[in-house]
Amino acid sequence: MSQQLPPLNALRAFEAVARHLSFTKAAEELSVTRAAISHQIKYLEDYLGFALIERKNRAIVLSPQAEAALPQLREGFNNLAEAVRLMRSATPTLSITVCTAPSFASKWLIPRLPRFSRQHPEIDMQINSNAMLVDADLQQGAGAIDSFFRQNQVDVVISFATGGHAGEDAEKLFPVSAVPVCSPALVGNAHPHPLLTPQDLAFHALLHDDTNYVGHPTWAKWLQLHGVEGVNANRGLHFNHVSLALDAAVDGQGVLLSLKPLAQSEIDAGRLCVPFDLLMPLEHAYYIVRPQKAGEGGNQQACDAFVEWLREEAQLQIKASGKES
Q1: 86 vs 45, 78, 83, 89, CA distance in Å?
Q2: Can you give the pTM of this predicted structure?
């Protein structure tokens, strides 16, 4: 018959106090309050029926019983730590490869990945940010999808596509709109021509994300949609990557028309703002694409966990913005 275990949290608190000879340092190490450490020591002393720690001239002195037991107690904690390490090393590592466009990877996916890693530390991930693979192969139709996954050894794709091009089994992650974004400095009264209405764009440089992908928005389409006249849609600064365009916008160099999900982290941080909330809904959206013939075993479980996490993150984004992106 197994013996009843002693209060492990109290023993851990005592071991830390005995090692540091300080309640304060023990509390800092265990990330609790000093009062919590005192409570655990009192609880352990009541459990054992004798004192473990004495205070003499404001110094901590261990009782003879505590001194005698301390070496074996430390050995016991070391054994527990080694046992946990062995259990973890015996657990097979799960790994998945995710393919998506560089812009989505850097501006949406990667900033959120620490949350996935905290939820699933057992899953390793490789990010393949090759936009040409995603756009050129997946959008050839459903018949090319399984071949794409086999040839590129990819488990999950996040594609910017239309429903017909994403594949029959594709799942829409979230819809996308384009929105003007700029530095808050451009909307303040300190600017000689603050951005109050779309017509004020005539006094500001337009920033263009000219990344080559199907379905990307343009200032010409946005201006036409909202009936804005007197603004040259082609002037301004042009960039071949969204990160460069966003950096220029943050720096106050002009107004950028961006996919809102790609600019959302800068908006949330206050580095960018939306001067007028005139969205341009896009036909394209972000889709989760998986092979029609899914794998089996642990890899399949890892993919399922990642896709479920993606759904949760998409819903969090939609709720935070109060509308669809």
Answers
A1: 32, 12, 5, 5
A2: 0.67
- Report how far residue 267's alpha carbon sits from residue 272's, in angstroms, rounded to the nearest whole number: 5
Here the tokens at position 82 are 């080694």
Half-sphere exposure at residue 7, Cβ-oriented, CA atoms within 13 angstroms: 14
The predicted-structure confidence for 80-132, as pLDDT tens digits, reads as follows: 888 877 776 665 668 899 999 888 999 999 999 999 999 998 899 999 887 55
Structure tokens of 171?
Answer: 């799942």
Q: Where are the beta strands (DSSP E) in 44-122?
A: 53-56, 59-62, 94-100
Q: Which domains does the chain have, with CATH numbers?
A: 8-90 (1.10.10.10), 93-325 (3.40.190.290)
